[in-house]
Amino acid sequence: MILVVTGLAFEARIAAGLGVTVICQQNATLADVLVPALAEGCEGVVSFGTAGGLVDDLRPGAWVIARSVISGTRHFETDPRWSQALRDLLPDARYGDLAGVPEPVVDTNDKHALNRATGAIAADMESQVVARLAAAREISFVCCRVVIDPAERSLPEAALVGMRADGSTDIGAVLKSLLKRPGQLPALLAVARDAAQARKSLIQGRKKIGAQFGLPSA
C-alpha cells in the first residue's frame, strides 16, 4: 500500500486509486493523521498535489518532482530510484528542490526571496511533514506536485480565506472577502484560471503515473 498525502480535497480525489490510501490534511494537523497511518505500515509515501512556483519560468500546470525537501536548515532527500521512475513517466517535469512552508507564500517578492534563500523552485505546505516523518522512520518518500500559482503572481486575500482546514473550499468566505474588497476580482479570476490548468495537469499526470505512483519493483 502506498500512502498519498494531499492538502486539498480536489487533489485527494485525483490521487485516489487502486493500491493507495489517500490522506487529505493541511500541514498543521497532518502529523496527527500521518503518524498512526505510518505505524500501520506502507511501501512508501507520496506528497501529491499543487505547489507555488518560486521561479518565473514555471507556469501553472507545470510538474515538479522533488530532488529534496528543504525545511528550515534541513534537507530531506527523496528516494532517488522512485523519483527517477516518476521523471521517466513525466518527462516534461522539472526536477529540483521543494521548500516546505507553514503557510502559503502569498507575495511575489516573498516567492523570489524564498528561491534566492533556498534554491528551491517551488513550495508547498505538506511535503516537509511527509519528508520529516518518513525520513525518521526510514520509509521511502517522493514528492510530485503541479504549480498552481506562478512566481510573478501575488495571491489575493479572497483566494486564501476560502481554504478550510480539511482542504475543502469555503465559498461563503470567498464571497464575503469579495464584498469587502471587490477590487480583488480580477486577481481572483486569474487564480481560478491557474487552478483550472493545474487541475487539468494533475488529472493527466495522475493517469500517466499509474496505480503504484511509479514505485519501482524491488
Task: Describe the structure in your own words.
This protein has 218 residues and is α/β, with parallel strands linked by helices. The protein has one domain: Rossmann fold (3-Layer(aba) Sandwich), CATH 3.40.50. It is built from 8 helices and 8 strands. It has helices at 9-15, 27-39, 80-89, 108-118, 127-136, 157-161, 171-180, 185-209; strands at residues 2-6, 20-24, 44-53, 63-71, 74-77, 94-100, 122-124, 141-149. The chain has a 5-stranded mixed beta barrel with strand order 3-7-6-4-8, surrounded by 5 helices. A hairpin with a 2-residue loop joins strand 4 (63-71) and strand 5. Helix 1 (9-15) packs parallel to helix 8 (185-209) and helix 2 runs parallel beside helix 5. The radius of gyration is 16 Å and the shape is globular. The chain starts with a strand and ends in a 9-residue tail after the last helix. The mean pLDDT is 91.
Structure described in brief:
The protein has 218 residues and is of the alpha/beta class. It has helices at 9-15, 27-39, 80-89, 108-118, 127-136, 157-161, 171-180, 185-209, and strands at residues 2-6, 20-24, 44-53, 63-71, 74-77, 94-100, 122-124, 141-149. It has a single domain (2-155, 196-209), classed as Nucleoside phosphorylase domain (Rossmann fold).
